[in-house]
Amino acid sequence: MYENVLVPVSFEENRDSIGALEIADAIRSDTGKITLLHVMEEVPGYALTYIPADFHDNARQSIAEELVKIAGDMKDMDVRVVDGHSGRTIVDYAEENGVDCIVIASHRPGMQNLLLGSTATQVVRHAQCAVHVLR
Asked: Which of 13, 57, 83, 126 is deepest in the core (most CB within 10 A)?
């Protein structure tokens, strides 16, 4: 059983974030907590002039609200929205916050990724804790 489980959430169509959350709940201890994490990728500099100034803050708030909906009434839940590159940021967050298991949903990969999606691959290769990949 794990004390501190991280569930990265991607809002892409074929990711089973609910399934990942259910697994996280099943493998955490009675006193364990789950953190739902979404990583907001940086907007390229050339596109910034075309985006309203409050876009980032509004998007962050909307994403946090959606994470709260996903969490539902599950106990000992936390939601976080952070900026960065998804794979590296998930690994860094896990290390900085004492996560002992990451439960990540992966999409069906193309030939370039062969076995896992690129974010899941990076997390599996670089995480210092256990990683459970859901397909």
From this structure: 126
